[in-house]
Amino acid sequence: MTVLDHRNQPAEADTVPGWRPGATAPRTDPAPLLPDAEPHRVLGTPAADAADPELLRELYRRLVAGRRYNQQATTLTKQGRLAVYPASTGQEGCQVAAALALRPQDWLFPSYRDTLAVVARGVDPLQALTLLRGDAHTGYDPRATRTAPLCTPLATQVPHAVGLAHAARLAGDDTVALALLGDGGTSEGDFHEGLNFAAVLHAPVVFLVQNNGYAISVPLTRQSAAPTLAHKAVGYGMPGRLVDGNDALAVHQVLTEAVERARSGGGPTLVEALTYRIEAHTNADDATRYRQAEEVEAWQQHDPVRLLEDALRGRGLLDEQLVAGAAEQAEQLAARMRAEFHADPEPDPMSLFAHVYAEPTQQLREQADRLAAELAAEAEVQGR
Amino acid sequence: MSTVVREQHGLRTGTMAQALNLALRDAMHADKTVHVLGEDVGALGGVFRITDGLTAEFGSDRCLDTPLAEAGILGTAVGMAMYGLRPVVEMQFDAFAYPAMEQLFSHVAKMRNRTAGKLPLPITVRIPYGGGIGGVEHHSDASEAYYAHTPGLHVVTPGTVADAYGLLREAIASDDPVVFLEPKRLYWGKAEWDPAAAVAPIGKAVLRRPGTSAVLVTYGPSLPVCLEAAEAAKAEGWDLAVLDLRSLVPFDEATACEVVRSLGRAVVVHEAAGFGGAGAEIAARLTEKCFHHLAAPVLRVTGFDIPYPPPMLEHHHLPGVDRILDAVARLQWEE
Ligand SMILES: Cc1ncc(C[n+]2csc(CCOP(=O)(O)OP(=O)(O)O)c2C)c(N)n1
Q: What cofactor does this one take (chain A) (predicted)?
């Protein structure tokens, strides 16, 4: 028995095609794989009444802090303290809910916009920003935090998540991998190759596409002609789910189901969360060139923090203490960001040579010596 | 080859393909984390039969037939390595590794560096490479310069049967990613070799033939051609040394410089295109480091700067004995 014998079929099923001339066996029915007809929603529906109050409060505190984090990081770019920041304002619900659907043994594979998911994983909020500040590629220990580095090339993290999930399953561990990406990333080859591998290997992996409407300036209609991005799951042989990405509770439910399905041997799931990027792509982008203010306003009326507030209020859970506590936590976080990013970072120049190979080559040793000599000479000049 | 039994190790006569197969087999026995994956590596044993019998012996989890997608194969290997496995990836042919270049360049080569040493990737990427087997287009590229130009990768290529075994065992055991270039025109050449005998480590060049007139600096598929040229040069009164680099990264500058300084004349030989090729780097380095010992410029004999030609023309492209001897003649260097 290998892990690939997952179809509960006789061994020869792997070697014969599903259909041959004269066969009467039914073809595979795609219906169970088709995504939800409407995005799954919970907040604002009676189903929200059944939700665990502590989960709602936790989501609320993290969304409020996440919103503040986005604002503060954007301000830091204006002050030149961060090289760039792709804000996830408006997408806080997906990011936080996604990370909270994982258990400590699981792995998260984020892309550059997913700092909030990384922070929700337990990574220090400032360490999650070193890539964007420019002092280190990855500020946290991926193994210790079970969080892969923020990935800049689009969709390349997708097959990594698949490989890790596959290896975990081979090891007999109940680890699940969650890969995050954007709508634009679904056009990249690595997305397709990763999904196909996941389905064929039956890997315990979940893919969450945060469809925020645009890839930089390009709208979804120019990115894909599929009815939904979740439909892409069908062709690979995995279920697709559609969820309101601003409904943090709905995202949490759908992802928890998908993660549990993966953990219990059910294979991969593709989830599309419908959300919106309120800010520009990054601080360097001018969103007025490609989208209308009315569109942004419509989405602002459907804000993830407000949806959660309304739900909490409806159940009498939004008390003074919660509101004040969440605001206080958020302000403390922002103050820490300001304080610690006020100073210029001083990365060690010699670290350039530290982690290229396990053992530096002779050429690298010589180059390191040359830089050390240059630095020493510089220090001497400055000392004089 | 599936009949090769490990216990029969000892002096043996075999091909490079058999040596590579034995190296994979032994590595999988020695270390349970070694997993082979690629296109057709299972029941078929790979199109060159390098993985022959591995699935039968170790199961389809350890030697995995993958979907046909090179970025997917290498990207999946990245995740496997992140979780503690040692993937050995087979790319079916040199030019079909190109779809995986982004994974190779952006992640495989950089992950150790991106994570400040926290996520080293012990991945071996085996790529049958180079021409001389009559392959049609996209089956004969020599792409070593792309890999060697990418910091974070080791790039090795065996020129002998014994090295094929020894270097592959080392590549798999390495904690860094290794691009393992297999000269496909040497796959079927037989030699007597002993798997138990140690070969020089990755990063060490080996003088395959001593000489007194000049040195031919080469690697992989061009090694036998250079040895043949050195033999032919005897008739011209030239006693040529042949240095086999075996590894482009790390580059064994010490050994190469020592030989070049002692002889004062050198020709770098490879079949890949010359412009921006590995030979350009080697010649520049040898010139910088050995200038005062040189009696002539370091010359290069390489393939032309053309896309790999159709098989009926490839013999014009590949450096042969005559072209090497022409260069040797020019080493006398009287302007
Ligand atoms: C392979 C690759 N091509 C191009 C880019 C440049 N780029 C960065 S973000 C981006 C748009 C991505 O859009 P999407 O996937 O929808 O994610 P979003 O930014 O909306 O979160 C592009 C084109 C890149 N990072 N990687």
A: thiamine diphosphate
Inter-residue contact B269 to B222 (CB < 8 Å): yes
How do beta strands A218-219 and A214-215 pair? antiparallel
Radius of gyration for chain B, computed over Cα atoms and rounded to the nearest angstrom: 20
pLDDT for B81 beyond 60: yes
User: Which atom of ligand 1 has the smallest separation from the CA of A185?
Assistant: 15
Q: Is the C-beta atom of A152 inside 6 A of ligand 1?
A: yes
Model confidence pLDDT, tens digit, residues A254-273 = 999 999 999 999 999 999 99
Give the Cβ contact number of residue A153 at 10 Å. 16
The proportion of chain B whose per-residue pLDDT surpasses 70, expressed as a percent, equals 97
Cβ-contact B241, B215 below 8 angstroms = yes
Q: What is the CA radius of gyration of chain A?
A: 23
ipTM over 0.85: yes
- Average pLDDT of the residues of chain B: 95
- Cα–Cα distance for residue pair B242/B170, rounded to 1 Å: 23
Spatial CB neighbours of B144, under 8 Å, sequence gap ≥ 6:
B129, B155, B157, B181, B220, B248, B270, B272, B278
Q: CA torsion angle for A281, A283, A285, A291 (degrees, to 10)?
A: 60
Optimal mutation site among B28, B37, B74, B114, interface A, most CBs of chain A within 10 A:
B114
Is cis: bond before A360, omega within 30 of 0?
no
Q: What is the pLDDT of residues B160-215, one digit of tens each?
A: 999 999 999 999 999 999 999 999 999 999 999 999 998 999 999 999 999 999 99
B131, A335 in Cβ contact below 8 A?
A: no
Rounded to 5°, angle at Cα A165 from A245 and B50: 135
Dist. CA B40–CA B129, nearest whole Å: 17
- Considering only CA atoms, which of B93, B153, B90, B98 is closest in space to residue B121? B153
Distance from the A167 Cα atom to the nearest Cα atom in chain B, whole angstroms? 5
